[in-house]
Structure formats: structure tokens, C-alpha cells
Design a protein that fits this description.
mainly alpha
């Protein structure tokens, strides 16, 4: 293994670190609860149970549904437009849903390029490099260059596959969470215009969400 291979492995560790950060945010923060959290929040607000809604928001922590519910409650307390506050949070959520996806694509492309570059470096070494005493052994330089080139290609394309696979899954799940958040935002906006104790039936809540 050469310094070039070590640099490739460092790139791979960077990709894994970025994936880990995005997995934590998408699955353990944004989506830590399912759609029933939004339904419970909306039901509490429509029934006029503001304190229960606050408790749900506090308990849910960084979940996206809780952030939207918290924005609606803040607007309600301040006597301002609920929709405007919710829209501000949605703008941030749209950014967070796409965060890191472009970086994963770029790092994956760099990984595949590094594999091909590593193979080229070994070819140049084989053709024009100083082989030292190894050159006295028939076929040994070719064997070394081939092994190192294959290792570089394997590492590079492994980085590409991992980065793009993770990007595809994270993009899909992030989009699903964003779609759910968008529905809840619309329902909270309508609640802000109608006020509590109006249309609190479970059928209407399910239709909103």
C-alpha cells in the first residue's frame, strides 16, 4: 500500500463521516417519530389543548414535525400569522433535506477518478519509474504495479458505490420527510386561520395529513 492508497482511504473515511452525520439527522432527529406525532399535535391544537401541544413539541425534540408545531405555537402566542412562521421553518427544512447530497456526489466522483488516476500512476511507474533491485526480478515490477493499480481502482470505486448508494437512499427518505412536513405545515396554516376547537374530528385531521 502506498501513500496514494492511504489518501484514498482518508477520502473514504470522509465519505463515511458525512454519511453518518446525515443518517443521524434524517433518521434520529428529523424522522425520530412517525406521522402520528403530527396528527397528535394537530389534534391537540384544534381541540384547544395548547399545553398538551407544547408538551408534545418539547418531548419530540429536533423532529421536524415538532419544529413546525413549535413555530405554530410561537406565532399563536405572539398573535402573528402562523403561516409565516411555519414557512420560515419549512425553508430551513428544505435546505436540511438536501444538505450533504451534493457533497456525496462530488466525493463519489472524486473516488472513482482517484481509482483511475492510481492505475495511471502505476502504469507510469512501470514504464519509466525506478524499480531498484526489484527490476532484476523478471516480472516482479509488473506484478507490483498491477496489484497496486487494482487496489487503487477497488478503493476508488468502492468509495463511489458507497457514496452514491447512500445519497440515493438519503435523498429518497429526506424527500419523504419533507413531503410529510409540507402537509403538516399546510394543516397548521389552516389551523392558524380557523383557530382552535374548529374541525377537530379525526377524519378531517387524517385528511389534512
Amino acid at each position: 500500500m502506498t501513500g496514494f492508497h492511504i489518501a484514498q482511504l482518508v477520502l473514504g473515511l470522509g465519505v463515511l463521516g458525512l454519511i453518518g452525520r446525515r443518517v443521524h439527522e434524517v433518521y434520529f432527529e428529523a424522522g425520530r417519530f412517525d406521522a402520528r406525532l403530527g396528527e397528535a399535535l394537530l389534534a391537540s391544537l384544534r381541540a384547544g389543548e395548547i399545553e398538551r401541544a407544547r408538551a408534545l413539541v418539547r418531548a419530540a425534540g429536533p423532529a421536524w414535525d415538532a419544529r413546525l408545531g413549535g413555530a405554530a405555537l410561537t406565532a399563536h402566542d405572539d398573535g402573528v400569522d402562523v403561516g409565516a412562521h411555519v414557512d420560515e421553518v419549512m425553508t430551513d427544512l428544505r435546505f436540511r433535506a438536501a444538505a450533504g447530497l451534493r457533497s456525496l456526489r462530488v466525493l463519489g466522483s472524486i473516488g472513482s477518478a482517484s481509482g483511475l488516476m492510481g492505475a495511471c500512476v502505476e502504469f507510469v511507474w512501470l514504464m519509466a519509474g525506478d524499480h531498484g533491485l526489484t527490476g532484476l526480478m523478471a516480472g516482479r515490477p509488473q506484478e507490483i504495479a498491477t496489484g497496486r493499480a487494482l487496489l487503487a481502482v477497488a478503493i476508488g470505486f468502492s468509495v463511489l458505490i458507497v457514496a452514491l448508494s447512500a445519497r440515493t437512499q438519503l435523498a429518497r427518505d429526506g424527500a419523504a420527510l419533507l413531503a410529510r412536513a409540507r402537509k403538516l405545515a399546510g394543516a397548521l396554516d389552516r389551523w392558524g386561520h380557523r383557530g382552535p376547537a374548529n374541525g377537530s374530528g379525526s377524519g378531517e385531521i387524517a385528511a389534512d395529513l
